[in-house]
Write a sequence for this structure.
């Protein structure tokens, strides 16, 4: 072994020893459900994060024989995992199971047992195609990619089975032959009719463990949904099957629909219920044919589904999911929306219909807020801040929300006051005021509050940022020790340089004793405004002192980073000031603030959180001297994370399963650019450390297996590259010449 190899080995052993004793994944934060909330009763699932466009599927997470629940949310490509508790007949939130699913899930996730082994596999969207992951049958499960594009025989061409983004297909055994078929609206000539991709596994192999498809027909059931309409009309099927038009060339008039195939009349064939992007109800029509020769009777179509007494009605793109919600051995029906534009419902939109029939289905509406009624869900865009509003010495919560829309009402941004009605060591938050400071009067959109004593009178004032990029100053004039906010300066200081979604933070950034201003923006950058006034009279220029503070940009792609900064100068996270920046990419980025504020700040750490448009709030909620993390989510809810100790930021973690195949880097040695090949495509962090274990570089990776890292700014020497995801890690070394 050469001297360089020996040095690398010894340094690596030293590095691993240091990391093993100091490092904590997510700076020690772990998901928790231990922070109680109430709103007209206790919220058992308070910090489950909220729902926007949930897609429901059954699954077994353990071997207790009870079917559990997986919920994918299309709006932000996130998911939630629930275990069924047979003792209480309730679903309990178990966030620790979420990391068992592939990180690349997007748009569509339906769990179906395609190979008849008794374990639910994953069907998901992949750029106009179906990807499939196989369940390994373990408890809890893990999944392996089987195909990233299901192939189907169109007669003249074998190519990828098509799925339009936003559509919900039917993945069921439609012909009762024992294998899973796929029905979906087509593309090109078949975009308004339902294409039946027939699974040939049983026909060809005598078992159901394969994904062998052919297009049986491009007009299953002999009907179509006409362009820009939701009523069904009968059509004659073309004798020839035509391959789909290339996704980027098709002239699409089909804007989006959901398919639910269900045998409500128990006659052995599938009837159909369709939801459309333009309507609030299903269109249901019975099948008067049979399983192999379906014939949808459009003359009997109805919007009174699934119940004539309480038909589903919510905007827009209604979707249905069958599963046994109450565990009585019969499939019930969950109805919600699959459209993620802001005119669609985001609350009161998870309708559970229980099946009361002895055979077939008779649906009775049980609740319009399945699971939602047990969690904090304020609509969309929750933003928490911590302050003692009531003056009793306990931390209360003010939580802003962007907008709320139920099937019967809607409202724009407002503040929600949750009073701490517990104790210093056992907090409990109760909704006391759903329109705190009368903020609904001001017609804000995307309200984002920040707190600071801007007039030096000993209490916290408030700035609210809005969707148009403006700030609004609310002065606090407490009455009897209870905070009371009044809007005194709309369009504060004439600050008009923030493009969209102003997310303010108030803190003494430059150390001169005056409170400065940071404002995150939708594009992913942060603007710094220096306070040039006095303690009692803050003064800010209308243009930022530094337009791109720290050269921070949290957006992976243009224009949707939603940077939400929180200043943290707390020994619980180390001896340096940090900026915790919420993002729209399922993570909080942690940056070390340099003495020279014009410098480019290094990302010292990151915290993975399975939510979108994350806004952090840090506090010692239970007074145990260990600081916790409460996060507002884009879904309108909250996520809570605790630590078992105060761990410093900036030290990478090895608390993950190590990949045996490791990382490939080349060229090695290098002088400028290092190409990195990592073991899997996932949300990950690359950390480069020098031989003493000091962080030299850190980059976030967004679902890529290959990355080019610029190392030209590093001094010559030996470095270690540490790759980490939520589940895995790997370490390798390289040399800079």
């Amino acid at each position: 072994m050469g001297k360089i190899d020996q040095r690398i080995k010894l340094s690596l052993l030293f590095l691993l020893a240091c990391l093993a004793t100091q490092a904590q994944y997510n700076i020690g934060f772990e998901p928790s459900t231990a922070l109680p909330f109430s709103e007209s009763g206790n919220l058992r699932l308070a910090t489950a994060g909220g729902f926007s466009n949930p897609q429901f599927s059954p699954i077994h997470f353990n071997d207790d024989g009870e079917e559990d629940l997986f919920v994918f949310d299309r709006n932000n490509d996130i998911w939630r995992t629930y275990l069924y508790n047979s003792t209480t007949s309730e679903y309990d939130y178990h966030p620790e199971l979420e990391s068992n699913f592939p990180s690349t899930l997007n748009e569509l996730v339906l769990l179906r047992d395609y190979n008849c082994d008794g374990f639910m596999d994953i069907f998901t969207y992949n750029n106009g195609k179906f990807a499939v992951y196989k369940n390994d049958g373990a408890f809890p499960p893990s999944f392996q990619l089987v195909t990233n594009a299901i192939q189907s025989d169109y007669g003249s061409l074998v190519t990828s089975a098509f799925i339009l983004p936003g559509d919900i297909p039917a993945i069921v055994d439609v012909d009762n032959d024992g294998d899973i078929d796929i029905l979906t609206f087509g593309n090109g000539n078949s975009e308004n009719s339902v294409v039946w991709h027939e699974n040939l596994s049983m026909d060809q192999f005598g078992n159901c463990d394969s994904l062998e498809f052919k297009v049986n027909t491009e007009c299953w059931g002999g009907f179509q949904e006409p362009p820009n309409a939701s009523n069904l009309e009968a059509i004659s099927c073309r004798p020839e099957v035509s391959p789909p038009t290339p996704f980027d060339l098709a002239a699409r008039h089909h804007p989006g629909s959901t398919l639910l195939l269900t045998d409500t009349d128990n006659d052995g064939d599938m009837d159909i219920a369709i939801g459309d992007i333009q309507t609030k109800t299903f269109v249901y029509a019975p099948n008067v044919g049979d399983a192999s020769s379906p014939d949808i009777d459009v003359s009997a179509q109805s919007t009174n589904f699934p119940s004539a007494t309480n038909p589903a009605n919510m905007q827009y793109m209604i979707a249905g999911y069958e599963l046994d919600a109450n565990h009585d051995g019969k499939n019930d029906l969950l109805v919600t929306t699959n459209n993620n534009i802001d005119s669609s419902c985001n609350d009161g939109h998870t309708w559970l219909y229980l099946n009361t029939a002895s055979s077939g289905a008779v649906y009775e509406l049980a609740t319009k807020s399945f699971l939602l009624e047990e969690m904090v869900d304020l609509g969309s865009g929750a933003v928490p801040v911590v302050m003692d509003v009531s003056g009793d010495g306990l931390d209360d919560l003010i939580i802003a929300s962007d907008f709320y829309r139920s099937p019967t009402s809607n409202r724009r941004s407002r503040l929600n006051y949750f009073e701490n009605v517990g104790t210093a060591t056992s907090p409990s938050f109760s909704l006391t005021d759903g329109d705190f400071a009368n903020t609904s009067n001001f017609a804000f959109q995307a309200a984002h509050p920040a707190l600071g004593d801007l007039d030096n009178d000993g209490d916290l004032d408030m700035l609210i940022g809005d969707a148009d990029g403006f700030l609004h100053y609310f002065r606090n004039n407490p009455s009897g020790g209870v905070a009371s906010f009044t809007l005194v300066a709309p369009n504060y200081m004439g600050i008009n340089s923030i493009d969209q979604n102003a997310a303010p933070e108030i803190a003494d950034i430059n150390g001169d004793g005056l409170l400065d201003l940071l404002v995150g923006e939708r594009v992913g950058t942060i603007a710094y405004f220096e306070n040039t006034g006095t303690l009692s009279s803050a003064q800010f220029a209308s243009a930022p002192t530094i337009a791109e503070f720290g050269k921070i940009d949290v957006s992976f792609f243009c224009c949707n980073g939603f940077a939400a900064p929180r200043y943290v100068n707390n020994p619980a996270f180390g001896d340096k000031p940090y900026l915790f920046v919420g993002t729209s990419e399922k993570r909080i980025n942690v940056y070390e603030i340099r003495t020279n504020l014009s410098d480019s700040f290094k990302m010292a750490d990151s915290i993975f959180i399975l939510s979108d448009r994350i806004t952090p709030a840090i506090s010692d909620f239970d007074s145990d001297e260990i600081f916790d993390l409460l996060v507002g989510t884009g879904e309108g809810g909250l996520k809570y994370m605790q630590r078992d100790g105060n761990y410093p930021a900036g030290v990478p973690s090895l608390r993950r399963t190590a990949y045996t195949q490791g990382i490939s880097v080349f060229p090695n040695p290098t002088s400028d650019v290092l190409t990195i090949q990592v073991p899997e495509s996932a949300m990950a962090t690359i950390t480069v450390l020098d031989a003493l274990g000091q962080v030299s570089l850190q980059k976030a990776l967004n679902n890529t297996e290959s990355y080019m890292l610029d190392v030209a700014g590093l001094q010559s020497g030996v470095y270690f590259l540490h790759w980490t995801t939520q589940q895995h890690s790997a370490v390798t070394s390289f040399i800079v010449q």
